[in-house]
Amino acid sequence: MAIACAIGPPDRDELLAGALARDLDAAFERLVIAYRARIVTFVARMLRDDARAEDVAQDVFVRAYHALQTYPPERRAALRLRSWLYAIAHNLTRNTFRDAPPPSDPLDYDDGTPRVAVLDPQPDPETLVLREEAWASVGVAISELSPALRPAFVLRYVDELSYDEIAQTLEQPVGTVKASAHRGLLAVRAHLEKNDA
Amino acid sequence: MPETNLTDYGNATRWSVSPDFTAKVFAGIGVDRYTRAGSALGTVCVAWNAAGVSAIRLASDEHGFEVWYADRFGRRVVPAIEDDPISSAARAKLHGEDVDVPVDLRDCSPFEQRVLHKAAEIGRGSARPYAWVARELGTPDATRAVGNALGRNPVPLLIPCHRVIRADSSAGGYVFGTDAKRELLEHEGLDFGALESVARRGFRFIACDVGYFCLPTCGNVATHVDEPGYRGLRTAEEAHACGLVPCKMCRPIAA
Fold it and tell me: Which of B161, B214, B218, B247 does the annotation list as catalytic?
């Protein structure tokens, strides 16, 4: 257990990719567990629709599985899982965007579904309240970002991907994603400062 | 505002997921999962999917279980990493707790499903004859078909097919063997010694002096047959002659 915790994301991804190459079905749950919270968060940010985020995120994993099925084992083993999964999520949210417009009220966050805290199972109530407030204000700020800035900003500052990974995910030059993420950061900052004042 | 502040916000915006998230993904890819759980018969493999628990078998041979599963259900089953609400409920129920567990009977025919749902009504410490199940379903001639349906029960222990026994109070067949069936029923409180003694004396019903009569397998009524206030009956006519009414729990005769 202690060893598993000490392994950082890149190493863990390598191990995971190796396991997926050996037996896709048996290793797939590890991929879902490792990335479900991140992918749901990303999808929720991109869609501005938290109620549908889980359905779309489930679809991301189903598509990932079917893609992995078609890859030969050596290609699975060599995959950079993080940017590859985010790329699927990004493409799918882009399509979903076109299918249905986001809800008009960006504050309408909670669909009432009980959720299990994956990362922090027992936060104290005060932390929870603070998080809810932070969640709401950043959520509004992000939802007001333009579609051009939002993916790069979310991947950099919410999902904490490297610029290289973001460039891979969005299929854009590194310079472009750096600029988009930075402009997004300035816009979110301005929004938060306006609200704090 | 320094960038670290935004990282804090970033953590604050980490989403968490519904407990059935993984099960829904696996439903989407058509693969089921299984886990090992303790039961009255020792360790069992419990397979499940988003619809419910789909199979239970003894855990002696996991590879054999995976092969059998793919053959019977046409889907692959892989070892699970995490429990979710369905597998946790199954674990609790197999441990003896009184909880509802959704079961996936899509592989069974409509008749088999009706038989299994009927078997699920039989409470702990009781048993019913195969013919009773057939009669309750309105198909009194289908006793053998009832036996076959129970034999195909994909989720033994969760659906207590072991509580359906033969009319002469012998245990009858079971997916895990007749001895295991008898052991389970005795573990649940059924007294086979008393049932056999009642059967030997030709008693088909037990009368209670509070005014009703039962099947010998209704709770532990067979153990009381020689106590004051109880007696054995050979026919339903005897019961009617004494003005007794059929027990509402075990419904000993056709309505």
Answer: B161
pLDDT band at residue B210 using 50, 70 and 90 as cut-offs: confident
A102 torsion bin: left (phi>0), alpha (psi -120 to 50), beta (else): beta
Instruction: Give ipTM to 2 decimals.
Output: 0.82
- The verdict on whether B161 is a catalytic residue reads yes
For B33, list phi and psi in degrees, rounded to 5: -125, 160
Q: Is the per-residue pLDDT at B10 higher than 80?
A: no
Tell whether B254 lies on the interface with A, counting CB pairs under 8 A.
no
Sheet strands (E) in B59-204: 76-79, 128-129, 164-165
Strands B212-214 and B205-208: antiparallel
* Cβ-proximal residues to B27 (8 Å cutoff; 6+ apart), any chain: B49, B50, B51
- pLDDT at position A21: 95
Domain limits of chain B?
21-94, 110-190, 193-246
Is residue A138 pLDDT above 80, yes or no? no
Nearest 5°: the CA angle A54, A150, A106 is 60
CATH 1.10.10.10 fits B110-190, yes or no: yes
Q: For domain A2-196, which CATH number applies: 1.20.1440.230, 3.40.50.720, 3.20.20.30, 1.10.10.10?
A: 1.10.10.10
Percentage of chain B with pLDDT > 70?
Answer: 94
Strands B205-208 and B230-233: antiparallel
Q: Is the pLDDT of residue B75 over 90?
A: yes
CB pairs under 8 A between A and B: 106
Q: Write the DSSP assignment of A170-192 as a string of letters.
A: HT--HHHHHHHHHHHHHHHHHHH
Q: Write down the architecture of domain B21-94 according to CATH.
A: 2-Layer Sandwich (3.30)
Chain A residue with minimum CA distance to B75: A25
